[in-house]
Each structure stands twice: as C-alpha cells, then as structure tokens.
UniProtKB/TrEMBL annotation:
It comes from Agrococcus casei LMG 22410. InterPro entries: DNA_clamp_sf. This is Uncharacterized protein.
Amino acid sequence: MSGTIRLARAEAEWLFRGALAATSDQDVTPIICAVKLTVKNDRVTAIATDRYRVHQLFVPVAPGAPDGEFVMSRRQVQRLLKSWHGSRSLFPDQVVDIAWEDRDPNATTKVGMPVTPKHTGWVEFTVLSDLTDAAELISHGAPQVRGPYPPVERLFPDDPSDQSTEPVSQMFLDPAFLADTRYLRSGQGSLRFVVPRAGAKGSHQAFLVVNTEGTARALIQPQRPARDWEVYGDA
C-alpha cells in the first residue's frame, strides 16, 4: 500500500530532528542509519536507534490518513530538515507532503545481484507554501532503506511507574546521549527521567526518558564502568 501525509513545518521539524538524533552514522548497517515511520490511528510515529539508544516520537495527522509504514534514510531526513523556504516567520504556513510506496513483496533477485530501487519502495517529500508557486517547490525522492527494521519499540517498559523494587543506586551514561534527549521536548514541556529498578539485570537495564506531553520517549543503554574510575576528590 502507498499513501501521502501532510505535516506542518513545526511538527515535521520536531518529529524528524528528534528521531535523527538517535540514528546511526555507521554505514556498515544501513537499516539503522534510517528512521522508521508508521502511520496509524491518525498519527505518524517515528522511531530510530543506533543500538545504544532508542528515540520514539509521534505527531497527529489529518483524520483519514492511510495506514502505512516506511523507512526513510538518514540522508533524506537531513535533506528534509534543510529544505524549508527560509524562516518560519517569513513562511509561517509551510507544510511538507510525504508520500511513500511500499516494498514489492514479490520482488526476487538472484544471488549476488543487487535489488533494484523499485523493489525497496520509495519515499518522496515536497515542501509547500501559499507564498511559493509551483516552480519553487522543493522535492526530493529516494528509495526506502532495504531490510527489516529491528523491533526496538518492544524494549520500552509496559509500566515505567512500577515501584515494586528499589531503583539502582548509580548508572554510567553517555552525556552526549543525555544531551540529545533535549530534542524530545515540545512546546514548554520538560523531560521526566526514570531510573531503572533493581533486579536480575541490575544497573544494565536501560534508562528511560519521557517528555511531559506524552508524545516522545527514549531509552539509553548504560555504559559499563571502567575498572579504575575515580571518586571525586581522590584523583
């Protein structure tokens, strides 16, 4: 199935910037150098991972939007974020149309032969504004990234408010990953940090971050501490 959705500039920028922050930049695994988008129940959900964290965000779409799922490459997302007609103040009514064509389920290829782009599906975006004419439209199309996207949405806990056990006493987290969670904020909201509870996995459980609007969340995998880490003041 194929379809098209329309997003306002502010919503599209927030959605894609938040997902882009968690994509991998290691081309050895192309499928995670991408953002998976799912259109369902009048919302579009973006999810991305680089193996060490997961970002998931959603925004509403117009009622009646067709359900669907597609994978948009990191490069195409970056291009979209740079394709607006100037500032928001000059073009306040900008929107982006995102159209996708599903992968061909009957596509086959011989061993050692590349799969042609038509077999991977297609994603195209077009930036529109009432202040621009057809000659000034900004569009870009690219094949979907090949391969199944890992089901990382299953990693989120069912009940992050569970208080049945004590929280872990300490965690080692990459500060760059924590900084990137700022893209999950929307409006004037803040972020809620949920420390994992003690259990069989101990401090190696993922650290949960949720925005207070309930529209975005992230998981961050703790780092293993160095053997000789120092306590402040002892070095």
